[in-house]
Structures are given as structure tokens and as C-alpha cells.
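Example record

One chain of 878 residues, shown exactly as stored in the release files.
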Amino acid sequence: MVLLFGFAFIFRRYDTFSNSKYAYALSICVYCTAWTFYGSIGRSAETGFGYLGVYLGPTIIAPLMFLVLTKTIKISKYLRISSLADFISARYGKDTSIGTIVTILSILIVIPYISIQLKALDLSFNLLSQNYVEVKDFGKGKIISDPSLYFGIICALISCIFGTVKAAPTDRHPGVISVVAVESIFKLLAFLVGAIVIIFYLSDGVGSIFKNYQSLSLNNELLDLKKLTQNGNQWFWISFISAFAFLLLPRQFHMSVIENKDVEHVKFASWFVPLYLFAISIFVVPIALKGIFIFGNTIPPDTYFTNLLLSENLYVIALIVFIGGIAASTGMMISSLISLSIMMSNHLLLPSLLKFKTLSFFKLEDQIVQFRRLLIFVILMLSYLFYKHYAINYSLVSIGLISFVGICQLIPSYLLGLYWKPANSKGAKAGLLTGIAIWAYTLPVVNLCEIGILNQSLLTEGLLGCSFLKPQAFLGIEGMDPISLSSFISLTTNLTITCIVSLNTKRKPLEISQSDIYLHPNKYVNKNKVSVLSSQANFEELKSVLNEILGTTKVELLLDNYLKVNNMERFQEYADTALIQYIENYLTGSLGSAGTRIILDNIVQHQPVQPELLFNVLDQTNQLYEYAKELEEKQAELTIKTDQLFEANNKLIELDQLKNEFISNITHELRTPLTSIHSLADTLNRYELTEAEETKVIRIIKKESERISNLVNQVLDLRKLETVDDVKLERFNVKKLLKEVIESLEGRLENRTIKLKGDKIELYSDFNKLKQIILNIFTNAVKFTDAKTGQIKVRLEKSNGMVKLQITDNGVGIPAQDLLYVFDRFYQASNVNKANKEGTGLGLSISKHLTELLKGNIYVNSIEHENTKFTIEIKDYA
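Predicted C-alpha cells for this chain:
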């Protein structure tokens, strides 16, 4: 405990750690209390794997935790929410009665929960200070010598010193966060150390423990998976209530929402917390089975962990486990005392004192701090008395589960408030009161009957003698365990009544605006609040009251900040709605919404805004929000369009360059044969040639004319690429087509060789288009192979309705950097000029277009200076 004080003092001033995502995630692990440390082993000894539901629930909800918790944090920071009661009451028009109900329910939940921490401390302390066989009547000793009382007092002191420094709970407490985070680390390490010693030092591993347990003359129901699956109701409901208890227990809400520094930390916590829960629960069953094997029913199962170590005289390890148990209990008690004292002061004590005018406004913030410190000790003493007179008779888990079901009565009002617009205060109150009544009747009342405080005939005969009102078979439902029965009936009724009443009653103007904030918090973050009340107050009178509550210095700073933010030089005689809302927002963070409304109602005149105007304001806010979203979307679209235009412009520049190269090439290609024809024609006119010479000249003229014709045809084919050609299907022999192509090129082959492999294959496709494709490939092969050593190999085959042609040559090849572009229009490989070959760069582009037109594909593989292989696949339409 001295170390905790030291950590709190150090981290209160140096808050680097407390502001980190690691401290935040570890502080949420305050969920793991003495119940986890000792009670899980006790429950496992009774139910086997039945303890897992408490950890499965938060683990399953972890992915959703990011969505729900993030939204809750944004709303809380915007409205300066100070507690769970404030959060729920603010959603329903700042209804003070809802805040009161939530606070009273929290008292009924937290006090029993703290009592089981005291019980765990008392049990473990007595085990360490006495022989475990002689420990009897835990908690029955004198108060003056009760270690649990002193333990509780120390926790209360830490809570007072570090958790109630300021009246505004919305101001974070780095000392408290650091203490809880450090405790989370230590309790995990202590648990793992004790577990590893028991499993691997006192036993030969997990397998050995299971074998020893199975050797007992028991029916081994604990490990019977079939029985486990039969308890589906219990598993579901324990997991369900645990999941939402993880969000809604006052200490959890305080650590995860009020003490949050950065909403982005929730992302890290959403995967870290399940990992932590896994680590602290993985060895529970082996420890429980080892305890059953060694002790059986001779000692309480909750004490197995410590007793197993003491029985082997491992006192140092037992001491480490004991301190781990203290860490688990301390974190829970400190955070619970702080959160509950805030709720009690803001929703019970302060409103009552203000209503009956028994409280002076003079330095009210300082008075609130003292009230909370007093309430911390009141809560502690009530918890201690509850432990002595009630919790001592029950296991840690049984009380914990009852508390879980109780706090889950807030689920409908909490979730519907976040996601369902029609939910209103009347529905929330009706549902809450009904759910709490059913929970109290089906769980706490049963326990009071069992210990003799209430008449046990209630359990056997039911209320007023009505059998369907038996607490353990409520409404005639039998066969469910008490936790499942209470959870099912209370939550179903709670939700149903909340919805029915909300749908049949009207919302108040303030509820309408508040619901919009809760449903769409992103519309309001970093923006001014929506005004639903036209407010007015005498400025000097308002300032006088503030001076009493906050002190002159703080008020001057507060008002100066308002003038700067709003670019004002001075205040008017009467404070307007905006200024009053600014002051109300500040006071709410310190005094709570209930106390603030009571104080301001005495000096501020409110006039509700007409519904039409209210809806208009909300609509304008919504329009601004939607407009902002639309602008963001337009900006994103413009960015994409800009990138696309930039890319298209680069493509146009590239095409323009290719076009210029094409025009240059085609001009050169046309000029050469035309010049040759012109020169030869002039020769025929001027000179008398022999018949042989004339024949030779005419043959050259014809060859050059064909060259021009081919160039013109390629240009025409380029134009056809922009249109859709008709496919003229006919049946033909592919080998015969190949021979025609080869014959047409005989005059250009010189000493090149062509080898054709493959059977005769019939194809039903377009003869002329396929001929053009193959001709273009062959032309390139002839053009880029040596006239003396050139070889062209053709392989022909058919499979799966496709005819495949592979045309391979041993020419100059295509550089690797050009392979991606060889089918582009006008493109010529970078080594073309080196080979002194000229062309238009259209042949392969045309071939690819025609291949796709025939429902086929064309590929190229090449190694520069070695070979080039074109593969053509054409669909058989037959």
C-alpha cells in the first residue's frame, strides 16, 4: 500500500505513463478483481469450465467496444459528463429522477461488490497468519483487529487524496490511473507466478493434474463437455451480463470514459483487454482440479489458490499471491469509491441540500470535494457492514453475478439512448423501475430468505401464496438457474416497457436536442451546443453567484476566456442563452447536471423554444453536418479525378509522341517506295531497255507498290480498331491456313527455315482475321531474324475448346522493359533501330485486337538476343 502511494505521487506530476494507451488499457482491466483472483477458482471447482462466461462476454464484445465506447466518450467529453448517472440522465432531457434511480441502483451494486473484496482480503490474510487447517469463522473476529477494515480505510485514503482533488471529475486523475494500471500488471504477474508453481513445480504439468483428478472416485461431471453444452442458458446469460457489466459497472464507466485521455486509445484496448483476460484465466481449471484432489470439500474452494502453496510451505510464493490479491481488490475499491461518491454527491446529496436550502453557495466547489471524501468513507463502512452481516455467508462469485444482473438493468436505457431516437425519459424510467424490481425480487430477496432475514415461505409458496410468483420460478418458468431466470425476465420486461412507453408518449424539447447529440455526436464535437431554451439572467447577479461557488479568480479566468473565444469586449447587462449555456456546461462538470440546474433555476429565466424552431435548429445543424460530409466526399472525388486527369494527360502526351513517331515512320516508309517507283518509271521513259531489264524494273515497281499497299492497309486496320468488326465464322483447317501464310512470305524468307509441328486441326472461326494475326507475327519474325541463320518454329495443338499456336523465332528478341508495351499502338521495341528495321508499330496492336475479337488471347515471351515466342489462343465456336 505504501508503494501505491509512491506510484500515485510520482505519476500525479509526471503523467507521461498515465496518458498512454497502455495505462488506459490496463486501467480498464480493473474489471478483474478479487472475484477473478480467487472466486474464479472457487467457481471452477463447482462448475468446471463454467467460470469462463465471465471472460467470454467482454472478449466477444471487444470488437463492438470500439464503436460503443468511442461514441460514449465523444458524447461525455462534449457534455462534460462526470458519471454513469449523468450520462444516462443527460440523454433523457437531464431528468434528475433518472439520475437518482441510476445512483441508487449503483449503490445497491457497488456496496456488495466492495464487500467481497473485503472478504477476499480477510480470507487470504487469515490464511497467511495462521495454519490453514485451523482457520474457521472468517470475519467473525473483533472489529479492532479486522485486517479488512484497515485495508478498506487505506483504499479510502488513496481515493480521497488522489481521486477527489478537484470538484470536476472530468479533470483526469493521473495518480489514480497509474495506480490501477500498475496493479493490473502486478495482479496478472502474481497470478501467473502462483499458477505456474502449482502446475509445474507441485505437479508435472496440466496433463498430470487432469489424470490425478480423473483417478478420484468421482463421476467427473466437471469435465463432462456434454453436460457443459446442456447448460446453454447459463453460459449465454453469464456471458451476456458480463459483457455489459464490463461497460456499465460504475468503476468501468469511470475508468474507460471519464478518465479517457484520447479516444484513439480505445482501439488498442479493444484487442489488449481480451488478451489480458485470456492470460489471467487460462490456468484456473488446473488450479481448481489440483485443489479438489488435495483438499476436496474440507476448505472453501475460494481459498484453494493460497492453501495449495501454504500446504507445501512455499511461503514466499504465497505472499506474492496474497499481494496480487490485494492489487486486484485495491484497484476495484479505489475506482468504485471514487465513481460512486461522485454519483451520490451529484445526484443525491447536493440536490437535496440545495432544495432544502441548507447549503451555502460559498466556495461550493470546495464543499463538494469534502462531501465526496466523506461519502467515500460512508460507502466503505456500509460495504464493511454488508460484508460482516451478509457477504460472509456467500461465495465471491454468487454476489458478483447478482451485481452483474443488477447493473445490466441499465442496458435498455443506455443502448436505446445511443441508437434509438424515440426513446424518452418516461419509457426509460418505467423500464428501469420494472427491471430493478424484478431483479431484486428474483435474486437479492432469495438470498435474504435463505439467511433468515425474510420468511422462507416466500420461496416455497410465492408472494401472496401465488405459485407463479415464486422468486425461483417467476411467472411459472422452471428449469433455469437463478441468474439466467432473473436476467431473462428482468431485461426482457425492462426493454419491452421502455419501448412501449416511449412509443406512446411525447418527448420534451430538451430530450429532442439531447437525443440528437447522442445519436449523432460527430455533428456536435468542436461545435456550439444547440439551444432549446431561450435563457436570460442579470449578469451581475449571475457573476455574484459564480464568485461564491468558484471564487473570484476562477470566475475571472472563465469569463475572460468566453470574451476571447467570442471576440467580445464586454458583457451586456443581461446574460444571453450562449453565456448561460457556457456557464452551465462548466458547472455541470463539477456539480453534476442536477445540482447545476437547481442553482441556475433560481437566477435564470427559461422560455422553451417552440417545437417548430427547435426542429429547424436541429435541421440546420444536420444540414451543416451533411454539407460538411458532402464537401469531404467531393474533395475525395476531386482528388481522384485530378489523379485520373493527370494520368490521362500523361497518356495523351505519350500518344502524341507516338503519333509523331508514327507519322515520321509512315512518311519515311511511303517516301522510299514512291521514290523508287518514280525513279524506275523515269528510267523506262528515258532509256531503251532490253526486255529482261524491263521485266526486272516492272517486278521492282510491283514489289514497291505492294509495300505501299501493305502500309495503307495497316493504317486502315488502325481505324478499324475503333469500331466493332463482324466475325464471319466458317470451318477451315488451321494447318492449311499456316501453309498459305508461309507461301505468301516465300519471296522474303531467303535462307530462313520454317518448321511446322502439329496435327491437322479443324477450327470454326474467322479465317481472314486469324490469317491476318498469324501474318503479322510471321512478318515480325522474318523482319527480326538473320537472313541466313533465321529459324521459325510453329507448334499447333487443340485442347478444352481452344486452338493454340506457338510461333518461336531465334531473332534479336525483345528487351524485358519493352514486353509490357509491345501490343500498344505505334510502339516499337527499344532495340529496333539497332537492328535497322523500320515499321509502323501497328502490327502487334492489330493482332491483339483481332485475337480478342475472336474470344482469344495472345502472349509474348522473349529473351533478348536469343528468341521470341508468341502464343495465340483462339476459341473454337463449334
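Notes: The longest strand covers residues 791-799.
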